[in-house]
Amino acid sequence: MGDYLQPKTLDDALTALAAKPYVLLAGGTDLYPARVGKPFDDDVLDLSRLDGLRGISEQEDHFRIGALTSWTELIETDLPPMFDGLKLAAREVGGVQIQNAGTIAGNICNASPAADGVPPLLTLNAELELAASRGTSIVPVEKFIINNRQTRRAQDEIVTAIRVPKPSLATTSTFLKLGARRYLVISIAMVAAVLERSNDGTVAAARIAVGSCSAKAQRLRLLERALAGQPISPDLAAIAEPSHLSRLAPIDDVRGTGEYRLDAALTLIRRALIRLGGGS
What we know:
With 280 residues, the chain is α+β, with helices and mostly antiparallel strands. It folds into 2 domains: 154 residues, Uridine Diphospho-n-acetylenolpyruvylglucosamine Reductase, domain 3 (2-Layer Sandwich), CATH 3.30.465.10; 107 residues, CO dehydrogenase flavoprotein, C-terminal domain (Enolase-like, domain 1), CATH 3.30.390. It has 9 helices and 14 strands. Strands 4-5-10-6-7 form a 5-stranded antiparallel beta sheet. It has a 4-stranded antiparallel beta sheet with strand order 11-12-13-14. The protein has a 3-stranded parallel beta sheet with strand order 1-3-2, with helices on one face.
């Protein structure tokens, strides 16, 4: 094994990263399985003692989720309905043991097309706070993930928090996932949806994101525009059409064909809109 560091402060961690590249370790639920049966000779920077990166707080214009916050902590924190979709996704991340150890930010940085947390964070317009010795920057999650397993994180940067802006209107959200079985499964397709409600009962804004159907999760802006201004009811589901999924590029693999994934994604979108429209 290479060098192993476990800094106690963020400044110490950033100083180490500025000196040379390290593999960053948080919950380890992605790092260790990826190296089963392989020599582990990476230089590792273990972030688990940076307690300042834990917890969820409410700021004036946004919610801040520390980068080391676990899925379990998210599930157990009292949050407004806009987070319901993210909480539903959290319950799909492995079993309880994985939810206890795995971090929300780690799920993003892993950048898997099947990362359960990414679609709901896209629908929340979430941003990442990245720290380096040279300063701090804010990057939208949508721009942070470039491709399958590729992000914009520079060698000397650490994700310190996820920021979710507060909407000005009543907001509801949901998440649906299809897998080969009910639990402990990589998704065939998954959908997150958010609706902001105008005072007259119409859709002020809609945000729909689909995962496991492209190299990275995708927002469906054509569908979002079609939903805007429509009365909020289960009839919203009828607006979703195959043409709205044109941005998706699903592959054929052992879990399903690309054609099946597209059909499944459309079905999940319609079910999500029925749910958010007041249906069962």
